[in-house]
Write a structure and sequence with these properties.
The chain has two domains: 11-113; 144-276. It is 29% helix and 19% strand. The chain is built from six helices and eleven strands. It has helices at residues 17-26, 28-37, 100-113, 144-167, 249-253, 258-276, and strands at 50-52, 57-59, 71-75, 80-85, 88-94, 177-178, 185-190, 199-205, 215-221, 236-238, 244-248. A six-stranded antiparallel sheet has the order 6-7-8-9-11-10. The chain has a five-stranded antiparallel sheet with strand order 1-2-3-4-5, covered by helices on one side. A hairpin with a 5-residue loop joins β10 (236-238) and β11 (244-248). α4 (144-167) crosses α6 (258-276). The longest helix has 24 residues, at 144-167. The protein starts with 16 loop residues before the first helix and ends with a helix.
Length: 279
């Protein structure tokens, strides 16, 4: 792995709740831009993002601008909206000191200049959790370390998930995508035809109502009934609200080789789920 997992953990995973909520809200402007300018698809992946390691950013799919395709996204470590063209950043707006309406006005001006539809006209089909800074200017002076750490919780797992998916090429796993609704990043692995359809979602969440820290998960569908098989450390079964094998950020950081431990956990848990589903 190229990502250096040893740099993680200087800010505890449990200290990222506030910045996670800020970033979750900020990413909705690029999500709206994608919804405004890309055709809807059944799984809603038109509004999802990929992790771009070169920019350390979540980026949308390519939008059909009049002078050539562009992508819109967010650099998490700087809480900065960006517009990219090719491999370059064409424009950027750091959100420190800005209000949410100001961010929307900026991205709409950029989209209109590119011959694209504005993001501000889009109503999201889901409700986001509240965050303390709603309606006020964002003040990020004291949150730089937390934003950098949250960015690493996307960068490291994104690389591991891509490696995991590459090993399963014969099963045709879906792309590794970050979904703006739940804000998790995952690949979905289908396990063949049949009723009910069988699949396993493998991903990482930056934290949510279930865990106040990032966590890896491997979630089979349909869920298991009866006794649950034993998981390799540091995993445990989560059964309330969603069903899956989980390893928390604190547990991952406590391992000797964090990146390999993350990859080994999702690989082993996937194998257990696949066997239990009979695929």
């Amino acid at each position: 792995m190229r990502f250096d997992w040893s740099k993680m953990g200087r800010t505890p995973p449990t200290a990222l709740v506030e910045v996670r909520n800020l970033v979750h809200h900020a990413i909705q402007w690029p999500a709206r831009a994608a919804r405004a300018n890309l055709a809807a698809v059944p799984d809603d992946s038109n509004s999802a993002f990929t992790w771009d390691a070169s920019h350390a950013a979540l980026l949308s799919r390519v939008l059909p601008a009049k002078a050539g395709g562009v992508r819109v996204g967010l650099r998490i470590a700087r809480l900065e909206l960006i517009v990219t063209s090719g491999h370059s950043v064409a424009d950027a707006l750091q959100l420190d000191g800005r209000t949410d309406p100001a961010a929307g006005a900026w991205i709409d001006s950029k989209l209109r200049a590119l011959g694209l539809k504005p993001a501000g006209d889009v109503n999201l089909p889901y409700v986001l959790p509240d965050h303390p800074g709603a309606g006020r200017s964002l003040e990020l002076a004291m949150l730089g370390r937390e934003l950098g750490e949250l960015s690493r919780w996307f960068g490291g797992p994104a690389e591991a998930l891509e490696e995991f998916a590459a090993r399963l090429a014969g099963l045709r796993p879906g792309p590794v995508l970050c979904w703006p609704h739940h804000f998790d990043m995952a690949t979905l692995v289908p396990l063949g035809a049949g009723e009910p359809a069988r699949s396993v979602g493998v991903g990482v969440s930056p934290g949510d109502e279930f865990y106040a820290q990032p966590y890896a998960y491997v979630s089979p569908s349909p869920r298991f009934e009866g006794n649950l098989p034993e998981l390799p450390p540091p995993g445990h079964w989560h059964t309330e609200g969603f069903f899956g094998a989980v390893a928390t950020g604190e547990e991952i950081l406590a391992t000797k080789d964090r990146g390999q431990a993350f990859l080994a956990f999702i690989t082993a848990a996937f194998g257990i789920c696949r066997a239990r589903l009979g695929a």
